Amino acid sequence: MNCRNNIKSVLAAMTGIILFISATVSAQEKNNSSIISKDLKWSERMALSIMKRAPKAWQIDNNEKPKWDYKIGLAMLSFQKLYQKTNNPVYFEYAKGYAESTINESGEILNYKLEDYNIDNINAGKILFDLYDSTKDKRYLTALQTLRKQLETHPRTNSGGFWHKKIYPYQMWLDGLYMGEPFYARYTAEFENNKAFDDIAKQFEEIHKHTLDPKTGLLFHAWDESKQMAWANKTTGTSPNFWSRSIGWYMMALVDVLDYMPKEHPKRKELIKYLNAISKAVLKYQDKSGLWYQVTDAGNKKGNYLEASGSEMFVYAFAKGANKGYLSSSYTNAALKGFEAIVNKLITIDPSGELHITQVCASAGLGGNPYRDGSYEYYINEKIKVDNSHGLGPFILAALELDN
Predict the structure, then answer these.
(1) Helix, strand, or coil here: 143?
(2) Does the pTM of the predicted model rise above 0.85?
(3) CATH code, residues 39-401
(4) DSSP SS3 for 384
(5) What tens digit of pLDDT does each residue of 253-297 get?
């Protein structure tokens, strides 16, 4: 009798192992399949395309070795959101693999130096909250605490805004609001008291106050409090042009911070007001195609082009804002129009079903060496790439908000 029971136990254990292996192989086959099914939603089709090109997440953008990077962090955040939507562990493991490749067992972050005070370095930390919640691996908590420590001592303008980087003193860029504030807000909500929410709101107040153009309602890319930079307006300190992706960063920062800003906080309504104001302005510049131009207000001026990443970010912010009730439901229609245009005009599809996103501005900034003057000519002449990481994460996030 005992022998028969032992045999049954062994068979049951073997069956469990076989089922586990089968499920794992099935997930890997989905990832490595030569054909990406057109029956899947756009979010999964893009994710599987990314995984096909870059079996390890750190290989995105054809990187030769792992590095802590804000763009890949954005893509991994979209994979975590996709996992929450689909419950497919392949997406969770892909993001987890990136964290494991860039954070050692002691919680030290690869190629990260706190004393650089680069706000971009905060962004990838957003993926660590869910990883720590799921695994309870202390390395992720240590890394979270390190990034939070940076914000404690990060240099600020005299009026209280975070510098974009130590190498860009007294400058606030729209990009920086997305890099730092959603992380700051979630950390505050999960680990601290609510006092820091005043400081988080302060960052938006400063950027709104100093970069808003009353004529268009748009926000200039950056502000130099010192007014010392050659690109800075000597009266206002603002950079000279509107760059769609920078405004997109700002809008994504608003809708994501609102996930954690307490409903009773007195500054919450102010942030929603900012979101409505910039959404109204951006909507005016949506091209008849459904997309937005690289230089937001310049239309089809010579050299300007319909740019992918900024368009995706606007779609995401419109859709999420409407879904959460911050924006009128009419913005859902604008988001759907934009997403349809992205798919029809900017996405190409291989015979294998692999998606490629075209017309992505590779990078843009101000100052530095070689010097970037923020002129119209500068923005339209930055490199345009296919499958650049700036265009990957926002596509998935936009698709998820629209259930596409």
Answers:
(1) helix
(2) yes
(3) 1.50.10.10
(4) strand
(5) 999 999 999 999 999 999 999 999 999 999 999 999 999 999 999
